[in-house]
Amino acid sequence: MSRSSSGPLPPFSPSLSSATPPRGSSQLPALLANFSYILDIAAFAIILPGIAASLNIGADQALLLFAAYGASLSATLLLGGLLIDRSSLKLIFLAGLSIYTAAAALIAVAPTFELVLLLRAAQGVGAGIFSPCVPLIIAACARHGSARGLTMWGVWSGIFAALSPLAIVLATSHAGADWRLAWLVVPTTSLIAIAIGLNLRADAKISGSSGPPATGAPAYYMFAYVFLSYGVTSWFIYNIPLRAAVLYGLDDIGSATFSTLLWLTFSLTCLAMARSVHLSMLHGYLLLSAALLVAGTALFFVTPWCALFVGAAMALANMPTTEIILANARRGAFGLSASFDIVCARLGGALLVVLVPAEFPGMTIAMMAISATLAALALMSWKSGTRTAPATLSG
Protein backbone atom coordinates (compact mmCIF):
# COMPACT_ATOMS: atom_id res chain seq x y z
CA MET A 1 0.00 0.00 0.00
CA SER A 2 1.51 3.29 -1.07
CA ARG A 3 1.76 6.18 1.36
CA SER A 4 0.73 9.61 0.15
CA SER A 5 2.95 12.52 1.04
CA SER A 6 0.40 13.74 3.59
CA GLY A 7 -0.62 10.40 5.10
CA PRO A 8 0.89 8.47 7.99
CA LEU A 9 3.59 5.91 7.50
CA PRO A 10 2.13 2.38 7.64
CA PRO A 11 3.91 0.45 10.37
CA PHE A 12 5.93 -2.70 10.17
CA SER A 13 3.35 -5.00 11.78
CA PRO A 14 4.66 -8.41 12.78
CA SER A 15 2.43 -10.79 14.68
CA LEU A 16 2.50 -14.26 16.13
CA SER A 17 0.45 -17.07 14.67
CA SER A 18 -2.89 -17.85 16.26
CA ALA A 19 -1.36 -20.84 18.04
CA THR A 20 0.66 -18.56 20.30
CA PRO A 21 -0.80 -15.18 21.32
CA PRO A 22 1.59 -12.24 21.59
CA ARG A 23 3.01 -11.79 25.06
CA GLY A 24 5.50 -9.22 26.24
CA SER A 25 7.32 -11.89 28.24
CA SER A 26 8.37 -13.49 24.94
CA GLN A 27 10.65 -10.46 24.49
CA LEU A 28 12.63 -11.23 27.65
CA PRO A 29 15.36 -13.46 26.14
CA ALA A 30 15.92 -10.93 23.36
CA LEU A 31 16.06 -8.06 25.86
CA LEU A 32 18.55 -9.89 28.08
CA ALA A 33 20.71 -10.81 25.09
CA ASN A 34 20.65 -7.19 24.00
CA PHE A 35 21.59 -6.05 27.50
CA SER A 36 24.63 -8.31 27.42
CA TYR A 37 25.52 -6.94 23.99
CA ILE A 38 25.21 -3.35 25.23
CA LEU A 39 27.15 -4.11 28.40
CA ASP A 40 30.05 -5.29 26.27
CA ILE A 41 30.01 -2.03 24.30
CA ALA A 42 29.60 0.18 27.37
CA ALA A 43 31.97 -1.63 29.73
CA PHE A 44 34.80 -3.01 27.63
CA ALA A 45 36.46 0.36 27.08
CA ILE A 46 36.44 0.94 30.86
CA ILE A 47 37.96 -2.42 31.83
CA LEU A 48 40.45 -2.44 28.94
CA PRO A 49 43.27 -0.85 31.02
CA GLY A 50 42.80 -3.58 33.62
CA ILE A 51 42.97 -6.26 30.93
CA ALA A 52 46.16 -4.72 29.53
CA ALA A 53 47.77 -4.65 32.98
CA SER A 54 46.86 -8.24 33.84
CA LEU A 55 48.07 -9.58 30.49
CA ASN A 56 51.14 -7.31 30.51
CA ILE A 57 50.41 -5.84 27.08
CA GLY A 58 50.67 -2.34 25.64
CA ALA A 59 47.91 0.02 24.53
CA ASP A 60 48.20 -0.97 20.86
CA GLN A 61 47.70 -4.66 21.65
CA ALA A 62 44.83 -3.84 23.99
CA LEU A 63 43.03 -1.98 21.22
CA LEU A 64 43.33 -5.09 19.05
CA LEU A 65 40.99 -6.82 21.52
CA PHE A 66 38.37 -4.17 20.78
CA ALA A 67 39.02 -4.34 17.03
CA ALA A 68 38.87 -8.15 16.87
CA TYR A 69 35.37 -8.18 18.32
CA GLY A 70 34.09 -5.43 16.06
CA ALA A 71 35.64 -6.89 12.91
CA SER A 72 34.31 -10.42 13.43
CA LEU A 73 30.88 -9.10 14.43
CA SER A 74 30.61 -6.97 11.29
CA ALA A 75 31.88 -9.83 9.12
CA THR A 76 29.18 -12.24 10.30
CA LEU A 77 26.16 -9.92 10.58
CA LEU A 78 24.93 -10.56 7.04
CA LEU A 79 25.44 -14.29 7.52
CA GLY A 80 23.25 -14.08 10.60
CA GLY A 81 20.54 -12.28 8.63
CA LEU A 82 20.61 -14.83 5.83
CA LEU A 83 20.34 -17.70 8.31
CA ILE A 84 17.35 -16.03 9.99
CA ASP A 85 15.51 -15.75 6.68
CA ARG A 86 16.16 -19.40 5.86
CA SER A 87 15.93 -21.17 9.20
CA SER A 88 14.30 -21.18 12.64
CA LEU A 89 14.57 -17.85 14.44
CA LYS A 90 14.94 -19.64 17.78
CA LEU A 91 17.73 -21.88 16.48
CA ILE A 92 19.77 -19.00 15.06
CA PHE A 93 19.21 -16.82 18.12
CA LEU A 94 20.30 -19.51 20.59
CA ALA A 95 23.20 -20.75 18.44
CA GLY A 96 24.72 -17.29 18.10
CA LEU A 97 24.09 -16.44 21.74
CA SER A 98 25.72 -19.71 22.88
CA ILE A 99 28.90 -18.95 20.92
CA TYR A 100 28.93 -15.41 22.34
CA THR A 101 28.38 -16.62 25.93
CA ALA A 102 30.98 -19.39 25.83
CA ALA A 103 33.65 -17.10 24.39
CA ALA A 104 32.88 -14.32 26.89
CA ALA A 105 33.05 -16.72 29.84
CA LEU A 106 36.40 -18.13 28.72
CA ILE A 107 37.87 -14.63 28.39
CA ALA A 108 37.64 -14.26 32.17
CA VAL A 109 40.03 -17.20 32.67
CA ALA A 110 42.20 -16.91 29.55
CA PRO A 111 45.89 -16.58 30.59
CA THR A 112 47.40 -15.09 27.42
CA PHE A 113 46.81 -12.19 25.07
CA GLU A 114 46.66 -14.48 22.04
CA LEU A 115 43.90 -16.60 23.57
CA VAL A 116 41.89 -13.55 24.66
CA LEU A 117 42.23 -12.14 21.13
CA LEU A 118 40.92 -15.38 19.63
CA LEU A 119 38.04 -15.49 22.10
CA ARG A 120 37.11 -11.87 21.41
CA ALA A 121 36.89 -12.72 17.70
CA ALA A 122 34.71 -15.75 18.51
CA GLN A 123 32.52 -13.60 20.73
CA GLY A 124 32.05 -11.20 17.82
CA VAL A 125 31.00 -14.08 15.55
CA GLY A 126 28.32 -15.08 18.05
CA ALA A 127 27.13 -11.48 18.40
CA GLY A 128 26.94 -11.12 14.62
CA ILE A 129 24.68 -14.16 14.42
CA PHE A 130 22.27 -13.43 17.29
CA SER A 131 22.02 -9.61 17.22
CA PRO A 132 19.83 -9.37 14.07
CA CYS A 133 17.33 -11.66 15.82
CA VAL A 134 16.79 -9.17 18.65
CA PRO A 135 14.74 -6.44 16.88
CA LEU A 136 12.73 -9.07 15.01
CA ILE A 137 11.77 -10.93 18.20
CA ILE A 138 10.97 -7.69 20.01
CA ALA A 139 8.86 -6.31 17.14
CA ALA A 140 7.02 -9.61 16.66
CA CYS A 141 6.21 -10.00 20.36
CA ALA A 142 5.24 -6.39 21.08
CA ARG A 143 1.79 -6.09 22.65
CA HIS A 144 0.99 -2.64 21.25
CA GLY A 145 2.65 -2.64 17.85
CA SER A 146 6.20 -2.83 16.62
CA ALA A 147 6.91 0.92 16.89
CA ARG A 148 6.06 0.99 20.60
CA GLY A 149 7.91 -2.30 21.16
CA LEU A 150 11.06 -1.02 19.48
CA THR A 151 10.84 2.26 21.39
CA MET A 152 10.52 0.49 24.76
CA TRP A 153 13.49 -1.65 23.73
CA GLY A 154 15.39 1.61 23.42
CA VAL A 155 14.21 2.69 26.89
CA TRP A 156 15.54 -0.42 28.63
CA SER A 157 18.70 -0.49 26.53
CA GLY A 158 19.49 3.09 27.45
CA ILE A 159 18.90 2.51 31.17
CA PHE A 160 21.22 -0.49 31.16
CA ALA A 161 23.89 1.35 29.15
CA ALA A 162 23.54 4.36 31.46
CA LEU A 163 24.13 2.46 34.68
CA SER A 164 26.82 0.00 33.61
CA PRO A 165 29.78 2.38 32.94
CA LEU A 166 29.36 4.29 36.20
CA ALA A 167 28.83 1.09 38.19
CA ILE A 168 31.96 -0.51 36.75
CA VAL A 169 34.06 2.62 37.35
CA LEU A 170 32.87 2.83 40.95
CA ALA A 171 33.48 -0.88 41.52
CA THR A 172 36.96 -0.95 40.03
CA SER A 173 38.01 2.38 41.58
CA HIS A 174 36.66 2.07 45.11
CA ALA A 175 35.68 -1.53 45.76
CA GLY A 176 38.85 -3.02 44.40
CA ALA A 177 36.97 -5.34 42.07
CA ASP A 178 39.07 -7.17 39.50
CA TRP A 179 38.17 -6.63 35.84
CA ARG A 180 37.47 -10.36 35.48
CA LEU A 181 34.75 -10.20 38.11
CA ALA A 182 33.15 -7.20 36.41
CA TRP A 183 33.41 -8.91 33.02
CA LEU A 184 31.55 -12.03 34.19
CA VAL A 185 28.33 -9.98 34.20
CA VAL A 186 28.39 -10.16 30.38
CA PRO A 187 28.28 -13.99 29.99
CA THR A 188 26.04 -14.36 33.05
CA THR A 189 23.38 -12.12 31.51
CA SER A 190 23.53 -13.89 28.16
CA LEU A 191 23.41 -17.31 29.87
CA ILE A 192 20.14 -16.32 31.56
CA ALA A 193 18.87 -15.23 28.14
CA ILE A 194 19.69 -18.67 26.75
CA ALA A 195 17.86 -20.42 29.58
CA ILE A 196 14.71 -18.35 29.05
CA GLY A 197 15.07 -18.49 25.26
CA LEU A 198 14.69 -22.26 25.33
CA ASN A 199 10.95 -21.59 25.77
CA LEU A 200 10.69 -19.78 22.42
CA ARG A 201 8.76 -21.69 19.80
CA ALA A 202 11.11 -24.11 18.07
CA ASP A 203 9.51 -23.62 14.64
CA ALA A 204 9.29 -19.83 14.73
CA LYS A 205 10.63 -18.04 11.70
CA ILE A 206 10.17 -14.68 10.01
CA SER A 207 8.19 -14.70 6.79
CA GLY A 208 6.73 -12.04 4.55
CA SER A 209 3.11 -11.41 3.64
CA SER A 210 1.45 -12.91 0.58
CA GLY A 211 1.44 -9.51 -1.11
CA PRO A 212 4.08 -8.11 -3.48
CA PRO A 213 7.53 -7.32 -2.16
CA ALA A 214 7.94 -3.83 -0.78
CA THR A 215 9.84 -1.09 -2.53
CA GLY A 216 13.26 -0.54 -1.00
CA ALA A 217 13.83 3.16 -1.78
CA PRO A 218 12.98 4.58 1.68
CA ALA A 219 15.02 1.82 3.34
CA TYR A 220 18.07 2.71 1.23
CA TYR A 221 17.90 6.28 2.49
CA MET A 222 17.58 4.94 6.03
CA PHE A 223 20.65 2.72 5.68
CA ALA A 224 22.62 5.84 4.74
CA TYR A 225 20.99 7.73 7.63
CA VAL A 226 21.94 4.97 10.09
CA PHE A 227 25.53 4.94 8.82
CA LEU A 228 25.99 8.69 9.34
CA SER A 229 23.82 9.12 12.44
CA TYR A 230 25.37 6.24 14.37
CA GLY A 231 28.77 7.44 13.20
CA VAL A 232 28.23 10.90 14.68
CA THR A 233 26.70 9.66 17.95
CA SER A 234 29.49 7.08 18.34
CA TRP A 235 32.01 9.86 17.84
CA PHE A 236 30.49 11.75 20.76
CA ILE A 237 30.12 8.64 22.93
CA TYR A 238 33.87 8.01 22.62
CA ASN A 239 35.17 11.57 22.54
CA ILE A 240 33.22 13.10 25.43
CA PRO A 241 34.86 10.81 28.04
CA LEU A 242 38.14 10.68 26.11
CA ARG A 243 38.50 14.47 26.13
CA ALA A 244 36.79 15.01 29.50
CA ALA A 245 39.98 15.79 31.43
CA VAL A 246 41.44 18.18 28.85
CA LEU A 247 38.29 19.96 27.68
CA TYR A 248 36.17 19.96 30.84
CA GLY A 249 38.57 19.24 33.71
CA LEU A 250 36.70 16.09 34.75
CA ASP A 251 38.11 13.03 36.52
CA ASP A 252 37.09 9.42 35.75
CA ILE A 253 33.98 9.64 37.92
CA GLY A 254 32.90 12.89 36.27
CA SER A 255 33.51 11.44 32.83
CA ALA A 256 31.46 8.33 33.62
CA THR A 257 28.71 10.55 35.04
CA PHE A 258 28.26 12.38 31.76
CA SER A 259 28.33 9.08 29.86
CA THR A 260 25.54 7.96 32.18
CA LEU A 261 23.61 11.19 31.57
CA LEU A 262 23.88 10.65 27.81
CA TRP A 263 22.28 7.22 28.07
CA LEU A 264 19.66 8.35 30.58
CA THR A 265 18.65 11.11 28.19
CA PHE A 266 18.42 8.48 25.47
CA SER A 267 16.11 6.37 27.67
CA LEU A 268 13.91 9.26 28.77
CA THR A 269 13.48 10.43 25.17
CA CYS A 270 12.58 6.90 24.09
CA LEU A 271 10.08 6.70 26.96
CA ALA A 272 8.47 9.97 25.90
CA MET A 273 8.17 8.64 22.34
CA ALA A 274 6.75 5.31 23.54
CA ARG A 275 4.00 6.99 25.57
CA SER A 276 2.57 8.45 22.39
CA VAL A 277 3.89 6.80 19.23
CA HIS A 278 2.95 8.85 16.16
CA LEU A 279 3.89 6.86 13.07
CA SER A 280 3.19 9.91 10.90
CA MET A 281 5.97 11.71 12.81
CA LEU A 282 8.79 9.22 12.16
CA HIS A 283 10.52 11.44 9.61
CA GLY A 284 9.92 14.45 11.85
CA TYR A 285 11.78 12.64 14.63
CA LEU A 286 14.67 12.10 12.22
CA LEU A 287 14.78 15.79 11.30
CA LEU A 288 14.77 16.79 14.97
CA SER A 289 17.57 14.29 15.62
CA ALA A 290 19.73 15.99 12.98
CA ALA A 291 19.03 19.40 14.56
CA LEU A 292 20.04 18.17 18.02
CA LEU A 293 23.31 16.83 16.62
CA VAL A 294 24.04 20.33 15.31
CA ALA A 295 23.48 21.68 18.83
CA GLY A 296 25.66 18.96 20.36
CA THR A 297 28.46 19.75 17.92
CA ALA A 298 28.28 23.47 18.70
CA LEU A 299 28.58 22.77 22.44
CA PHE A 300 31.23 20.03 22.33
CA PHE A 301 34.24 22.30 22.99
CA VAL A 302 32.31 24.34 25.55
CA THR A 303 30.57 21.97 27.97
CA PRO A 304 30.10 18.23 28.64
CA TRP A 305 26.35 18.93 28.79
CA CYS A 306 26.44 18.46 25.02
CA ALA A 307 25.91 14.81 25.99
CA LEU A 308 22.22 15.56 26.64
CA PHE A 309 21.69 16.70 23.05
CA VAL A 310 23.52 13.66 21.69
CA GLY A 311 21.49 11.24 23.83
CA ALA A 312 18.19 12.76 22.70
CA ALA A 313 19.33 12.78 19.05
CA MET A 314 20.28 9.11 19.24
CA ALA A 315 16.87 8.19 20.69
CA LEU A 316 14.96 10.14 18.05
CA ALA A 317 16.78 8.21 15.30
CA ASN A 318 16.72 4.77 16.92
CA MET A 319 13.14 3.51 16.52
CA PRO A 320 12.18 5.41 13.33
CA THR A 321 15.08 4.08 11.25
CA THR A 322 14.45 0.46 12.31
CA GLU A 323 10.70 0.81 11.76
CA ILE A 324 11.13 2.28 8.27
CA ILE A 325 13.76 -0.28 7.26
CA LEU A 326 11.62 -3.23 8.37
CA ALA A 327 8.51 -1.70 6.80
CA ASN A 328 10.32 -1.63 3.46
CA ALA A 329 12.09 -4.97 3.71
CA ARG A 330 11.42 -7.25 0.77
CA ARG A 331 9.48 -10.41 1.44
CA GLY A 332 11.72 -13.08 2.93
CA ALA A 333 14.51 -10.58 3.69
CA PHE A 334 13.61 -9.29 7.15
CA GLY A 335 16.64 -10.92 8.78
CA LEU A 336 18.96 -9.58 6.10
CA SER A 337 17.48 -6.09 6.44
CA ALA A 338 17.94 -6.14 10.23
CA SER A 339 21.52 -7.33 9.75
CA PHE A 340 22.39 -4.66 7.22
CA ASP A 341 20.93 -2.03 9.54
CA ILE A 342 23.42 -3.10 12.22
CA VAL A 343 26.28 -3.32 9.69
CA CYS A 344 25.67 0.30 8.66
CA ALA A 345 25.64 1.38 12.30
CA ARG A 346 28.84 -0.46 13.19
CA LEU A 347 30.73 0.74 10.11
CA GLY A 348 29.55 4.31 10.54
CA GLY A 349 30.63 4.32 14.17
CA ALA A 350 34.04 2.82 13.44
CA LEU A 351 34.87 5.05 10.48
CA LEU A 352 33.85 8.41 11.92
CA VAL A 353 35.63 7.79 15.22
CA VAL A 354 38.83 7.05 13.30
CA LEU A 355 38.53 9.53 10.41
CA VAL A 356 37.38 12.63 12.33
CA PRO A 357 39.75 13.28 15.25
CA ALA A 358 38.64 15.88 17.78
CA GLU A 359 41.79 17.90 17.00
CA PHE A 360 40.85 18.12 13.31
CA PRO A 361 40.45 21.87 12.54
CA GLY A 362 37.39 21.28 10.39
CA MET A 363 35.69 18.92 12.85
CA THR A 364 32.81 21.27 13.58
CA ILE A 365 32.20 21.96 9.90
CA ALA A 366 32.36 18.23 9.10
CA MET A 367 29.81 17.38 11.80
CA MET A 368 27.50 20.18 10.70
CA ALA A 369 27.70 18.95 7.11
CA ILE A 370 26.87 15.40 8.18
CA SER A 371 23.89 16.67 10.19
CA ALA A 372 22.61 18.57 7.14
CA THR A 373 22.99 15.38 5.09
CA LEU A 374 20.95 13.49 7.71
CA ALA A 375 18.15 16.04 7.38
CA ALA A 376 18.23 15.67 3.59
CA LEU A 377 18.07 11.86 3.83
CA ALA A 378 15.07 12.05 6.15
CA LEU A 379 13.27 14.33 3.69
CA MET A 380 14.13 12.12 0.70
CA SER A 381 12.87 9.03 2.51
CA TRP A 382 9.63 10.83 3.38
CA LYS A 383 9.11 12.04 -0.20
CA SER A 384 9.87 8.63 -1.75
CA GLY A 385 6.80 6.98 -0.20
CA THR A 386 6.53 3.63 1.53
CA ARG A 387 5.22 0.17 0.76
CA THR A 388 4.75 -2.38 3.53
CA ALA A 389 5.37 -6.10 3.60
CA PRO A 390 4.35 -7.03 7.14
CA ALA A 391 6.35 -9.82 8.70
CA THR A 392 4.90 -12.63 10.76
CA LEU A 393 6.55 -14.86 13.28
CA SER A 394 5.11 -18.11 12.03
CA GLY A 395 5.45 -21.79 12.54
From TrEMBL:
Subcellular localization, as worded in the UniProt entry: Membrane
| Topology in membrane | Multi-pass membrane protein
Asked if the keyword Secreted belongs to this entry, the reply reads no
Region span, Disordered: 1-23
Domain (Major facilitator superfamily (MFS) profile): residue spans on this chain: 26-395
User: Any idea which GO molecular function terms this record carries?
Assistant: transmembrane transporter activity
Q: Where would you find the membrane-spanning parts of this chain?
A: 37-57, 63-84, 91-111, 117-141, 153-175, 181-200, 220-241, 253-273, 285-302, 308-326, 333-356, 362-382
Could you list this entry's UniProt keywords, alphabetically sorted: Membrane, Transmembrane, Transmembrane helix, Transport
Pfam families reported for this sequence: MFS_1
Which InterPro entries does the entry mention? Answer: MFS (IPR011701), MFS_dom (IPR020846), MFS_trans_sf (IPR036259)
Residues annotated as signal peptide: none
GO annotation, cellular component aspect:
membrane
Name of this protein: Major Facilitator Superfamily protein
Q: From what organism does this protein derive?
A: Alloyangia pacifica
